[in-house]
Specification:
The protein has 951 residues and is α+β, with helices and mostly antiparallel strands. The chain has 35 helices and 32 strands. It is elongated and about 180 Å long.
């Protein structure tokens, strides 16, 4: 005890006060709780004091002295034990009373007293009377109470139950017998509740016992054979029994004696306040009382002061109250944490301060602040190792930069490394901290610690450093293996490959690593680093890409729908960028893919790309970019260095390769546009542009023909001056019976007419087909061919002769038809005249309808048909025999007149006819446009087109 430091962590809150004069008798007991202090006196009164120890109210609890008091915590009940009057010559009766302080009842006098819930005699026939030496109440689950009354004969009377309803149970406990009667008195009691276990400590001057009240019968266990006197017993906050003897203070647990503290002197009072032990010790030599507050955990005396004759000690409102025999009261309160720490800091007692804040369960921020100040103190004394040990404890509360800045000196790199390691262990390191720690390792060349830091992560939970920062620092410091380990472990494949390819040049290892990844990750990495891989390992890269895009195309993966399966695989189009400097590898990759996958969702894009590659005029893209970036002189010098023979050989190889690619392109154009498909499996417009730009006539002819652009087809032959091919093309495409366009022969004839060279043979052949299909009038043919000065009349002589003979026959046929129509017209006019001027004689004797003999009434028509009137019914205005033919004529006329009102039909017939004039003549001949007022306005507006159709 004498080695313990003394501090004034407590202080008197105010000068000592005197209890109110209402407390008139001698104080025998007191209790506190629920914001009040209750004082019992020898005159049977109980006084209740408020926070300022002012008298609140009082009442008479017993007729005689109040022996014991206890304020309950859960309910505002006050339990008292005192003496009450009895009929002489009997001695006073000891009663136990329970008062409800929240309820009052009026008495005959002006005073009011709380309601007494229960009154019972402590001693009965089964519980003989003895002197009460200790008293304790345990609040069980409301409304149950357990009252323990210790006697001077070693017995403990227990009363348990609902006192308000008088449902109680009494039982007796007995400590072990001793020879001396004075050693049997129960000087202290203490309840210990732990879960369902209920235990009772009992102290006598000669023993310490423990009763297990949850067992039946109640078991007793002797913990020690030395006890203490009255008021030397209390309970700690951990429910340990504390016993004070002159030589020391002892702690008891359920299994026996625990630690003891050698505080000399008679322990007049013991108490427990928060985590402090309170002792009023009487010095054996001077006889004076000293009040000490012990911090047992930190082994210091938090407060010590000389006091007078203390009668009672209690705690309430966060303060300690000492009631003296002269009724003066000392109020002692604990200082705030900041004041206590300032006191310790001034004395440089940082370890004490640290222990203090930790023992009093201060918040972590306050503890860290104390540790920081201690660290600063040690740092100022240049005790860097110990200072860093304190700073490490502040991690999580103190800004790391505060510590790092202090240890940035190169001589303190070991301490800085230690701090950064702890920072990473707790997962509080940032990217900058990781960078700094790794730089420390590399600067110290501490490969072992670097390995431990990099490879020490167990992979469970979140890693404790920033992965990307670790990779960057290790890579920059030349620790490529460590950087690759981190990248591989944490799935940073892009960094792993970046190191392999850019730093180590391990292309084959990079390809093997990519092959080990799952398809989605492999696709992303190849797309990112494919250009480098294709440049150095084109074949292996192509194989990996083919595997990604096809996934082997094994039957186990195709399952039910091949289209659905292919749609989730990467598309070859996604990897087009990586082949930008190696078109040959790109072409090989796409060719293999097309061979493996027949119905790819991206086949249109793939075919377009293949056509670009096949039809490119200069396949060496790399050399193209170099040619564009270098001067002409560089090309000349390069060519001179290679020599003329090597240039010629190279040109031959390029031309051969070009022809092979063009052949592949033509096969692709044809295979991707079969005859049964309306649209090709590529962009036909894009293909036309490619073929035209690269002078690929075979492909251009195929596309024009598939797109039915026949005029463009013959245009290609014209541009190539291929007369045989031109005529052969027209034979194939100009046959109308096979869906061709006969007008192609007209274009061919115009071409030969404008050619300006002798092409008699070709013109004669063309005239054969024009004459066969009657495509042009002879005069037009002569006009077209007359533009070519190299052609003679002999070319068209036979054609003209045949056409003149044919025209003569047509004229003769027309003349005969005219004469016939004139005769028919003359006959019809005579008949009309006869009908108008002469009478008709009807001589039919039979009805035309029923063929029976004609009798009256009869009806005769001008068409010389006669009918019974009954056979006609209601229709007597037209002949039933002639009416259908007449209606047909009228309907035809109506349709013709209606067609005149629809000019679009008329013009369409004019345009589609070989001889537009004949169509117009036919309309006039049928009388549909015989009257000007019947002509549609649009016909008058576009009348100029009539003549054009006859051309």
């Amino acid at each position: 005890m004498y080695q313990w430091k003394k501090f004034e962590f407590f202080e008197e809150k105010a000068p000592s006060v005197v209890l109110p004069e209402e407390v008139a008798g001698t104080i025998t007991c007191c209790t506190s709780g629920r914001g009040s202090v209750s004082v019992g006196c020898d005159d049977g009164s109980v006084s209740v004091l408020d926070r300022g120890l002012r008298f609140s109210h009082g009442f008479r609890a017993h007729a005689g002295p109040v022996l014991f008091l206890q304020q309950l915590k859960q309910r505002n009940y006050l339990v008292t034990v005192g003496e009450d009057e009895a009929t002489p010559p009997q001695s006073p009766i000891v009663c136990l009373k329970v008062f409800d302080l929240d309820k009052t009842e009026a008495e005959s006098s002006s005073e009011t007293s709380p309601v007494c819930v229960q009154i019972m005699r402590v001693f009965t026939n089964h519980f003989p009377e003895a002197k009460i030496t200790s008293f304790l109440v345990l609040e069980d689950a409301p409304p149950l109470l357990l009252v323990a009354i210790g006697l001077d004969n070693g017995c403990i009377y227990c009363i348990k139950g609902d006192f308000a309803r008088e449902r109680i149970n009494r039982f007796k406990l007995q400590v072990e017998n001793v020879s001396e009667k004075g050693q049997l008195a129960i000087t202290g009691l203490g309840f210990r509740v732990e879960g369902q276990a209920l235990q009772l400590f009992a102290v006598t001057p000669a023993s310490v016992s423990l009763f297990s009240l949850h067992d039946q019968p109640h078991k007793r266990q002797t913990l020690d054979h030395i006890g203490c006197e009255t008021n030397g017993v209390t309970m700690s906050d951990r429910l340990d029994l504390i016993v004070g003897r002159p030589e020391a203070v002892y702690f008891y647990e359920v299994d026996g004696r625990g630690p003891c503290w050698a505080f000399e002197g008679e322990k007049k009072f013991l108490g427990w306040f928060r985590s402090y032990l309170l002792c009023v010790i009487t010095d054996q030599r001077s006889g004076k009382d000293t009040f000490n507050v012990y911090d047992l955990k930190n082994r210091l005396i938090a407060h010590s002061m000389m006091v007078g004759d203390v009668m009672q000690m209690l705690c309430e409102w966060g303060n300690i109250f000492l009631i003296m025999r002269n009724k003066r009261v000392l109020c002692i309160g604990e200082k705030d944490m900041e004041s206590k720490l300032d006191m310790l800091f001034k004395k440089n007692l940082y370890t004490v301060a640290i222990n203090l804040v930790q023992s009093q369960q201060a918040d972590a921020a306050a503890t860290a602040e104390v540790l920081r100040k201690y660290g600063d103190h040690l740092y100022g004394k240049q005790d860097y190792d110990e200072a860093m040990a304190q700073y490490i404890h502040t991690i999580g509360h103190l800004e790391p930069s505060y510590v790092i800045q202090k240890f940035l000196d190169a001589q303190r790199i070991y301490n800085l490394t230690n701090y950064l390691e702890k920072l990473h262990e707790r997962g509080l390191a940032s990217k900058d901290h990781t960078t700094l720690l790794l730089n420390c390792y590399t600067k110290l060349k501490d490969v072992e610690k670097l390995n431990q830091f990099i490879r020490g992560e167990d992979g469970i939970g979140e890693h404790k450093f920033d992965v990307e920062t670790a990779i960057k620092v290790c890579r920059a410091a030349g620790y490529h293996e460590h950087a690759m380990y981190v990248a591989k472990k944490f799935g940073r494949h892009e960094w792993y490959l970046k190191i392999l390819l850019e730093d180590l040049g391990s292309y084959q290892e990079a390809l093997q690593y990519i092959s080990s990844l799952d398809p989605s990750q492999a696709g992303m990495t190849v797309n990112q680093y494919g250009k480098i891989l294709v440049e150095h390992r084109s074949f292996e890269t192509t194989e990996i890409l083919l595997g990604l895009c096809t996934a082997g195309q094994d039957s186990s993966k195709k399952r039910t729908s091949n289209d659905t399966y292919l749609s989730i695989l990467p598309s070859p189009v996604d990897f087009a960028d990586i082949f930008i400097h190696n078109p040959q590898a790109h072409m090989n990759f796409l060719e293999k893919y097309v061979t493996s996958v027949k119905d790819s969702p991206a086949q249109v894009e793939i075919h377009n790309t293949l056509l670009d590659l096949y039809l490119s005029d200069n396949f060496d893209f790399t050399s193209m970019s170099q040619d564009n970036g270098n001067a002409e002189g560089a090309n000349v010098s390069s060519a001179e260095s290679k020599g003329k023979s090597s240039v010629e050989s190279s040109n031959k190889d390029k031309e051969k390769d070009r022809l092979e690619r063009f052949n592949k392109g033509l096969r692709l154009l044809k295979s991707a546009w079969p005859s049964d498909m309306e649209h090709p499996l590529y962009d036909d417009d894009h293909a036309v542009v490619l073929c035209a730009r690269n002078a690929f006539n075979d492909g251009l002819l195929f596309l024009y023909e598939k797109k039915k652009l026949y005029k463009e087809v013959i245009g290609c032959y014209k541009n190539a001056h291929d007369h045989d091919g031109l005529i052969a093309c027209c034979k194939r495409l100009g046959d109308s019976s096979k869906g061709g366009d006969p007008s192609l022969w007209k274009d061919v004839l115009n071409y030969f007419g404008d050619l300006g060279e002798d092409c008699s043979k070709e013109v004669k052949e063309v005239l054969t087909y024009i004459e066969r299909d009657d495509l042009l009038p002879p005069i037009v043919v002569v006009q077209i061919l007359s533009r070519n000065p190299c052609l003679t009349l002999s070319v068209v002589k036979d054609y003209i002769a045949r056409k003149l003979e044919e025209e003569s026959k047509l004229i003769e046929d027309d003349r005969k038809a005219i004469e016939k129509y004139q005769e028919d017209t003359s006959t019809m006019r005579k008949e009309i005249q006869d009908l108008r001027t002469n009478a008709r004689i009807f001589q039919l004797s039979k009805c035309t309808a029923c063929t029976f003999t004609l009798d009256l009434p009869a009806v005769h028509f001008m068409c010389m048909h006669s009918f019974h009137q009954r056979c006609l019914g209601d229709n007597e205005k037209e002949c039933p025999e002639c009416a259908p033919e007449y209606r047909s004529v009228l309907e035809t006329k109506r349709r013709l007149e209606q067609s005149v009102r629809d000019p679009s039909q008329f013009f369409q017939q004019v345009r589609n006819s070989k001889d537009g004039f004949s169509v117009i003549a036919d309309y006039f001949g049928k009388g549909t446009v015989s009257k000007t007022r019947d002509i549609h306005p649009e016909l008058l507006h576009d009348s100029g087109s009539f003549g054009g159709g006859g051309a």
